């Protein structure tokens, strides 16, 4: 420290002070405006960037809200479509069951009618066969009984007695 105090030169100090003042004046005259302009431009750019970021954030919030709304609408539409499809499916099943039941009833009625007609035809055929068989049996019996004259006379008398009784 003693050396600093002893080495102090007023002339050196003076010239350094003048160089410093000249340098400051040159900086003020030539560099101060461009530096301040650059700082102001940078500040404006940062402010604009912050405003743009804020606007983008708000836009993103709006988009998210819109997306959420669209998703809700899509879900509602999907649910409505699924509900409608289920209703259509249930209606188709009910219609198919009803149609199958109607067709089944028609088939049962047709089968009953067919069975009844076949039964009637079988009964008619059976009656014809029984009557034919009865006639043949009666014919054979009458041939046997009427083969001799005494049997014919007895049969005629018996028939006459039956007629008088009734």
UniProtKB/TrEMBL annotation:
Q: Which Pfam families match?
A: ATP-synt_B (PF00430)
Spans through the membrane? 12-32
Under the cellular component aspect of Gene Ontology, which terms does the record hold? endomembrane system; plasma membrane; proton-transporting ATP synthase complex
Coiled coil spans: 46-91
The entry lists its GO molecular-function terms as: proton-transporting ATP synthase activity, rotational mechanism; proton-transporting ATPase activity, rotational mechanism
Q: How does it sit in the membrane?
A: Single-pass membrane protein
- What keywords would UniProt list here? ATP synthesis, Cell membrane, CF(0), Coiled coil, Hydrogen ion transport, Ion transport, Membrane, Transmembrane, Transmembrane helix, Transport
Q: Where in the cell is it found?
A: Cell membrane; Endomembrane system
Say which domain of life the source belongs to: Bacteria
- What does the subunit comment say? F-type ATPases have 2 components, F(1) - the catalytic core - and F(0) - the membrane proton channel. F(1) has five subunits: alpha(3), beta(3), gamma(1), delta(1), epsilon(1). F(0) has three main subunits: a(1), b(2) and c(10-14). The alpha and beta chains form an alternating ring which encloses part of the gamma chain. F(1) is attached to F(0) by a central stalk formed by the gamma and epsilon chains, while a peripheral stalk is formed by the delta and b chains.
Q: What does this protein do?
A: Component of the F(0) channel, it forms part of the peripheral stalk, linking F(1) to F(0). The b'-subunit is a diverged and duplicated form of b found in plants and photosynthetic bacteria.
Q: Which family, according to the similarity comment?
A: Belongs to the ATPase B chain family.
The name under which this protein is listed is ATP synthase subunit b
Name the gene behind this protein.
atpF
């Amino acid at each position: 420290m003693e050396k600093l105090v002893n080495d102090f030169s007023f002339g050196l100090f003076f010239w350094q002070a003048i160089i410093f003042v000249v340098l400051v004046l040159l900086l003020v005259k030539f560099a101060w405006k461009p530096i301040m302009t650059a700082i102001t431009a940078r500040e404006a750019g940062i402010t604009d960037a912050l405003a743009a970021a804020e606007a983008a954030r708000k836009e993103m919030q709006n988009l998210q809200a819109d997306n959420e709304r669209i998703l809700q609408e899509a879900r509602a539409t999907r649910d409505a479509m699924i509900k409608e499809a289920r209703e259509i499916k249930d209606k188709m099943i009910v219609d198919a069951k009803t149609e199958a039941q109607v067709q089944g009833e028609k088939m049962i009625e047709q089968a009953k009618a067919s069975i009844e007609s076949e039964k009637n035809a079988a009964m008619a055929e059976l009656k014809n066969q029984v009557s034919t068989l009865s006639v043949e049996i009666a014919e054979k019996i009458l041939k046997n009984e009427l083969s001799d004259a005494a049997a014919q006379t007895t049969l005629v008398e018996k028939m006459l007695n039956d007629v008088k009784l009734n």
